[in-house]
Design a protein that fits this description.
With 461 residues, the chain is an alpha/beta fold. Helices cover 29% and strands 23% of the residues. Strands 1, 2, 3, 4, 5, 14, 15, 16 and 17 form a nine-stranded mixed sheet that branches. Strands 6-7-8-9-10-11-12-13 form an eight-stranded parallel sheet. Strand 7, helix 2 (95-106) and strand 8 (113-119) form a beta-alpha-beta unit. Helix 4 (157-170) crosses helix 7 (208-225) and helix 7 packs parallel to helix 8 (237-248). The termini are far apart. It binds N-(aminocarbonyl)-beta-alanine (URP) and zinc ion (2 copies). Belongs to the metallo-dependent hydrolases superfamily. Hydantoinase/dihydropyrimidinase family. It comes from Enterocloster hominis (ex Hitch et al. 2024). InterPro entries: Amidohydro-rel, Hydantoinase/dihydroPyrase, Metal-dep_hydrolase_composite, Metal_Hydrolase, Metallo-dep_Hydrolases_sf.
């Protein structure tokens, strides 16, 4: 099958031009002006932007309480064609087996392409030794949690340093969830002892200093190990500044923020009764000055990518979040994979905060480079034909009834949206059209990541 997309405005991370894209099978074969080729199908994209399919480098499906890969169709309609999920490790399960188990949940189920980050949850010598073998199973990124002390997620500095020492030998990119666990425990107990149980205390118990301290410590550990670092879900201005400072000194220190840290504030946690629980995720939503700082950081390149941290908790609000009796036992996480393009475009591009090129970089090109997927996130000859034909004139509103994430609420309910993916192609096949999934469930493929991703650029040892 071949496809010719004609007369669109092709947007890449570095340029924009009117032209045609010719796709043969699953691959982009030609890009140019007025291409003279025969194709089985021709699509006229006049007045439309042609964007690379999104790469969401931060999602949770079938773990961390998130709903299973059946609901990955939400990604497709939202213009994201590749999701990168975290493979949790159970005690005594080898790291590589944990990845294979998580992949088995996605294969023949996910409707978009998928890849994985490893997660160490059983820190010990045999597991650290496995880190160098991660690229053999197509994994080139590894997350450790500095928060959640007292649970299997938590890793101390010794574990982080041990993992970093192994990661750099194999070109694996280290990721950390940077929040100081002790600050959180002590402040949580403090507020609960005062009867302060409402969701907004989730923010007060996890103040910016908890993120700033852990981010600074992670950077120090990365420097000690001489290991590139990618800090996930950065939300606090001071944490971002620590990353910027280390990076500007020449250290390979990078970070991502997420769509909710660009669009929602602590006020959402303060909604009446217990509704703020819908917005409980970690790090927490921050006051407006932090939101402004996140926009500044993505515009200037101080943060490298924007993920969704999609975690559509099984049970949603009524069946999961509302069951919490106070802020500390509400399960963490919010959906967002379907909304990432819409929010970045409407509140970033349309307001003039970021250019269309920067949008492409944050939404697709850089996430693919960070995780090590050279065939994704770019409109270039030889790349996978993951393509969004984007109608910039469409206007609408985000609502849960149009969401395919499979739970009972939408954190961005009522947000006005400018533009939408008119057609979304996954490796040359049409999978979504005007907000409707039209592909076949389970056609997503496991994408094997290569080591020495973007965080190793200019830093080969
Ligand atoms: O609250 C969040 N972010 N839940 C998902 C797990 C994580 O820390 O990324
Ligand atoms: Zn995290
Ligand atoms: Zn996450």
């Amino acid at each position: 099958m071949s496809l010719l997309i004609k007369n669109g405005t092709i947007v890449t991370a570095t340029s924009e031009f009117t032209g045609d894209l010719y796709i043969e099978g699953e691959t982009i074969r030609q890009i140019g002006f007025n291409l003279k080729v025969d194709a089985d199908r021709i699509v006229d994209a006049t007045g439309r932007y042609i964007l690379p399919g999104g790469v969401d480098e931060h999602v949770h499906y079938g773990s961390f309480g998130g709903r299973l890969f059946e609901t990955a169709e939400a990604a497709a309609v939202g213009g994201t064609t590749t999701i990168v999920d975290f493979a949790p490790q159970e005690k005594d399960v080898p790291l590589l087996d944990a990845i294979r188990r998580q992949a088995a949940k996605a294969e023949h189920i996910s409707s978009v392409d998928f890849a994985f980050h490893a997660v160490i949850m059983d820190p010990k010598e045999s597991v650290f030794e496995e880190v160098r073998h991660l690229p053999e199973v197509g994994v080139a990124t590894l997350k450790l949690f500095m928060a959640y002390k007292g649970t299997s997620f938590y890793c101390d500095d010794e574990a982080i340093l041990n993992a970093m020492m192994r990661a750099k030998e194999a070109g694996v990119t280290m990721m950390v969830h940077a929040e100081n666990a002790d600050i959180i425990t002590i402040l949580t107990n403090h507020y609960l002892s005062q009867g302060k149980t409402a969701p907004v205390y989730h923010y007060h118990a996890r103040p910016p200093i908890a993120e700033e301290e852990a981010t600074g410590r992670a950077i120090a550990l990365a420097k000690a190990a001489d290991c590139p670092l990618f800090v996930v879900h950065v939300s606090a201005k001071e944490a971002m500044e620590a990353i910027r400072e280390a990076h500007s000194q020449g250290w390979p220190i990078f970070g991502e923020t997420c769509t909710h840290y660009l669009t929602l504030t602590t006020d959402y946690l303060d909604k009446p009764v217990f509704e703020g629980a819908k917005y409980i995720c970690s790090p927490p939503l921050r006051p407006q000055e932090h939101v402004d700082a996140m926009w500044h950081a993505v515009r200037e390149g101080w943060l490298t990518a924007v993920g969704s941290d999609h975690c559509a908790l099984d049970g949603g609000y009524e069946g999961a979040k509302k069951k919490g009796t106070n802020f500390s036992n509400v399960p963490n996480g919010c959906p967002g994979v379907q909304d990432r393009l819409a929010l970045l475009w409407t509140y970033g591009v349309c307001t003039g905060k970021i250019t269309r090129q920067k949008f492409v970089e944050l939404f697709a090109t850089n996430p693919a480079k960070v995780v090590g997927l050279p065939g994704k996130g770019e409109l270039r000859v030889g790349a996978d034909a993951d393509i969004v034909i984007f109608d910039p004139d469409w206007k609408g509103v985000i609502t849960n009834k149009d969401s395919l994430h499979g739970i009972d609420y939408e954190p961005f309910e009522g947000f006005e949206i400018q533009g939408r993916p008119e057609q979304v192609y996954l490796r040359g096949r049409l999978v979504a059209q005007k907000g409707v999934f039209v592909g076949e469930r389970g056609k997503g493929q496991w994408q094997k990541c290569r080591p020495y991703g973007l965080c190793y650029d200019y830093y080969h040892k």
